[in-house]
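Researcher: Predict the fold of Alpha-soluble NSF attachment protein.
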Amino acid sequence: MATQKDVKLVVANKLFERGEALMRVVVSTTLRMKFNDALRCFEAAADLYRQLGKWRLAGASFAQCADCEQKMREPLCAASYFVDAAEAMQKVDPGEAVRLYGRAIAEYAVLGRFHVSAALQRTVAELYEEEEAMHDAAVAHGYAADYYLGEAMAGQAIACLLRSGQLLAMEERFEVAAETFQRAVTLCLDDNLLKFNSPSIALDIVLCFLCLRDDERSLDFIETHTDMDFNFAVSRERRFALDIILNCQERDRHSLLDHAWNFDYVCELKPYRLGMLREILDAVQEPVDNSESDSEESKDSWLSDEDAASAKQGTAAGSDAGSRSSAGSSRRSRGGSRTSLGSASMG
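Model: Structure tokens for Alpha-soluble NSF attachment protein follow.
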């Protein structure tokens, strides 16, 4: 005996097949009427599939509804159906859900509803994070920030940029993470209500530079940002950044750990910051490359040896010349004495 679920499934399948048949048929009436009839069949089938928990079939039915709306030139309704299809497909196939969300985002962006596109883009980013595709999630958060900026929603854009930078830092893409954090800190400084968040973001930028083993860029950024933001000049983040830079230059891992522990006691370090500090600690523990200094020392010693050898040669040449001059003078004195003796004998 067939159950109610079996009956609903049979009805849903027939409605879906009816809708596909209407999409293929050539009618003498207007195309809008044909697509409208097909839309009703697909929508009814999607509702039944959703009740039965057939999420893949429900998503496919909603996607067909969106296609019908697009052919009737109704982009707003098409975008809404694409969202329904993505939400249903999200439960069984996240990859297909991302594709459907992308179509919805494109439709809303064409209509100028950037805040809706941004919200859906953040949903896509969260899907990527669940799938542990951190780089794709970071890129999606960056797109969401751009959409929020299109609606002049700086606060939401900064939140997306911060999350994008954090994910990039966790993926050890420190150069791109620093650029993302710099975009966020610039937006903070442009808003009087958000500029008090800039010291924390500035610290992230300094840590990214230190992970790249670039102390000079870190010091230059601190100097520049101190002139731009008076809050950073007296903040604990600036003091902590300067201490970490000093520890890196002195290669003092114990002081670095002490400063990190003290800062964490006052302001809890998030996982991505702990990862960057771990990278900095590994850099401090790396052995110093003394090959250049050794070559310079060997070159200096070689030059000093060569100078000493030339000095010895000069001394030897001077002594030879002296002996030759003394021999010549003795010969002249002997010649003079012989001349005087010859003159005396003649006399």
